[in-house]
Amino acid sequence: MNDSDTDACLMVTSDKALAVRAGDTLRLRDARGSKRKMRVVAANQDGCLAELNKTAYFTDGMQIKQRRAGKTHGRMRLTDLPPREQHLTLRVGDLLTLTADDDPVDPPSNDNDAEIARIGCTLPHVLAAVGTGDPVWFDDGKIGARVESASAEALTLRITQVAHASGRATLASDKGINFPDSTLPVRAPTEEDIETLGFAAKHADIVEMSFANSAEDVIELLDHLERLDAKHLGVVLKIETRAGFENLPAMLLAGMRLPRLGVMIARGDLAVETGFERLAELQEEILCLCEAAHVPVIWATQVLESLAKKGAPARSEITDAAMSVRAECVMLNKGPYIIRAVTTLNDVLHRMREHRTKKRDLLRSLHVAEREASFRKPSESPLAS
């Protein structure tokens, strides 16, 4: 069958040849135990096209009965079902267990509200540093929770906030986890970072240090670059935690051993770690500190995000992009409309450079004022009554 207009294509096996016809009914019990039936609307020697009117969950090996005129004409089983990324639907008040074991598990069924969802953490040793009452955030702050009980093996979390009007949100795999009030035993650079530096020393121009939190982190990175004879590499410190912000002056002084040093305001994690309401203030302070140190700044995270991904910007995004003129570099995220986003950003920054340089207003003459003056007669005064 031509599957270009179908929602799913399923492969089946059978012990005997099956002759499926239009009008046959295919009956099954899905992965949740729900009875479902599909009506065959077309069939040929390659397969059949069937309609399903209710949601069904399929698994490998599931049995399907072929029925015609009230009788069973054959049985088949699903095979080679492609894997599908699992996700959790969480609501305010739900319990979630975060474990040191990151082996994949099946999500709880929607029919069993008493079942507690469980997910793993890729850095299991940090769980021991999290205490009861600490906040936890997922997916760049879209889902908030608080720790109800804690151990080195697992945390029991109560969902307190979701960024959706329906009161529920979806948590997919490989999403970030933030512990803003917990002092985590995580150092930068990590062992994996150190292994990667050897390749970067030969092939890269710049390395970015994620979660730079202290001057000691920066000194350690510079020592490794010196060991690899890679002092030619530029280094960008990504400021994305409260500790990173508070220790920024010391990190700038430590990083000035290098001829090329930069700072990225990683506003996604920084907002989650310090509170969204403080982000505007923190990015202003980071800009001031880096300008005083003559260190260039990268303005990052969600710049013209709607334009890059959907083709049309939000009004607030244009204002945000305009404010980024105070940094030396602006980072855009990928999207199908990224070329349009780059063009728009270039236009906005070109205009804004005539009004501001870094943290200083230029107070240039305004075109609108010149236009207004051209409408007046020479004898008229703008202050005349």
Summarize the structure.
It is built from 10 helices and 21 strands.
Task: Please tell me about this protein's structure.
- With 385 residues, this protein is of the alpha+beta class.
- It contains ten helices and 21 strands.
- The protein has helices at residues 191-203, 215-227, 242-246, 248-255, 267-274, 279-292, 305-310, 315-323, 338-352, 367-374, and strands at 11-13, 25-29, 35-44, 47-52, 63-68, 71-79, 87-91, 95-99, 117-120, 135-138, 143-150, 154-162, 168-172, 177-178, 206-209, 234-239, 261-266, 297-300, 329-330, 356-357, 360-361.
- The strands form five sheets. The protein has a six-stranded antiparallel β-sheet with strand order 1-6-5-2-3-4, with no helix packed on it.
- Strand 10 and strand 11 (143-150) form a beta hairpin.
- Helix 8 crosses helix 9 (338-352).
- It starts with 10 loop residues before the first strand and ends in an 11-residue tail after the last helix.
- The model has no long low-confidence stretch (mean pLDDT 86).
